[in-house]
Write a structure and sequence with these properties.
Alpha-Beta Plaits, binds adenosine-5'-triphosphate, 334 residues, 2 domains, alpha/beta, Rossmann fold, binds magnesium ion, 28% strand, six-stranded mixed sheet
Length: 334
């Protein structure tokens, strides 16, 4: 049974993209190293990583544009590249910008690209092209030559090309790359509205802020390896949490905290008192601390004669977490 015959909503494992041990070597270099990706159906999945971390190489292997050195890919529950003829008509992709003819209009370019797609029905081409241009907000510029398009308009035309047929999955490689803040917002809103239609969207970016704003799930690449993946709220929770205590009684506070199994640190005193911090929940894989609840910590401090002027639990931001995971900074704004 083909994916099309099963219809939407029924892949075997509920995973629209699944890779196991996916690997790509370029000579000595491992550009992608044993990648196990799991992209749930209906998710907006952010594929994050700094420049050169292997995002485009992975996407090219997903789509059968590059051969894997090892490992397997399933798209829509079917093996790739073996089943590409069943899979690709249901997948819209924007990888490193499609080549447009600059002296043809947006409409004429899409007509040419659709005519080159084997499964596209010529009888419905005109209507589909016009709908796709409308969907990306380019109807007003449909007759304009592409050489007069802004970068953002070209990017939207590329997405319109990916939308010429109904799709189960959209794969967008850095769709906001090189766009100004206005163009970025437009593409972001477009991705959001496509996802609202139920299409699974796999979108790569080196901008954490992009992914945080539109994605339900994310994966983080660093030097070809996957260092984290999961629902965004789960990734947020996976950061380090610390307590921060302001008190005039730092020394007894430290001994109460140590008695609870925490490892306290004294920070430079602030105008309102001395500051003591301690890790409450470590990052996964780090040594476990004491497992006291914040309210119990406060109660024990007070019982121990510590005067508490301020107490809070601070969690590492997603950005801090990703920087820690990749060892590199992400651009957080454009
Ligand atoms: N055709 C190729 N031949 C040799 N090396 C390559 C080739 N394509 C990619 N690489 C190398 O593989 C690594 C991963 O590149 P890739 O383009 O997948 O990264 P990326 O995460 O998409 O980066 P960016 O954010 O800059 O687009 C890089 O070190 C790159 O130089
Ligand atoms: Mg890339």
């Amino acid at each position: 049974m083909t994916a099309a015959a099963r219809g939407p909503g029924s892949w075997t494992y509920g995973l629209t993209i699944e890779t196991q041990g996916l690997t790509k070597r370029f000579g000595q270099q491992l550009a992608v190293d044993g990648l196990d990706l799991a992209v749930p159906q209906g998710s907006v999945f952010g594929f994050l990583g700094p420049n050169g971390s292997g995002k485009t190489t992975t996407i090219r292997m997903l789509l059968g544009l590059a051969a894997a050195s090892a490992g397997s890919v399933r798209l829509l529950g079917l093996d790739m590249p073996g089943r590409f003829q069943d899979v690709l008509p249901q997948v819209g992709a924007l990888v490193e910008g499609p080549a447009f003819y600059p002296f043809l209009s947006g409409t004429a370019n899409l007509h040419r690209l659709d005519a080159a797609a084997r499964h596209a029905d010529p009888a419905t081409r005109k209507a589909r092209v016009s709908q796709a241009l409308d969907r990306v907000g380019l109807s007003h510029a449909a007759g304009k030559r592409v050489h007069a398009y802004s970068l953002g308009m070209k990017q939207r035309l590329g997405i319109a090309n990916a939308l010429l047929s109904p799709r189960e999955l959209l794969v967008l490689d850095e769709p906001t790359n090189g766009l100004d803040p206005q163009g970025t917002r437009e593409v972001r809103n477009l991705v959001r509205s496509l996802a609202a239609d139920g299409t699974t969207v796999f979108v790569s970016s080196h901008l954490l802020a992009e992914v945080e704003q539109i994605c339900t799930h994310a994966a983080v690449m660093s030097a070809g390896r996957l260092v984290a993946q999961g629902p965004l709220p789960e990734l947020r929770r996976s950061g380090i949490a610390r307590i921060r205590l302001v008190t005039p009684d730092a020394a007894p506070a430290m001994s109460v905290l140590a008695g609870l199994g925490l490892v306290p640190d004294a920070a430079p005193p602030q105008p309102d008192g001395e500051v003591v911090t301690a890790v409450l929940e470590p990052a996964p894989g780090d040594a476990a601390p004491g497992n006291a609840a914040p309210e119990d910590i406060v109660a024990r401090l007070v019982e121990g004669g510590v005067r508490v002027r301020g107490f809070g639990v601070e969690r590492e931001s997603l950005e801090d977490r990703f920087v820690a995971l990749t060892g590199e900074g992400f651009d957080v704004a454009q």
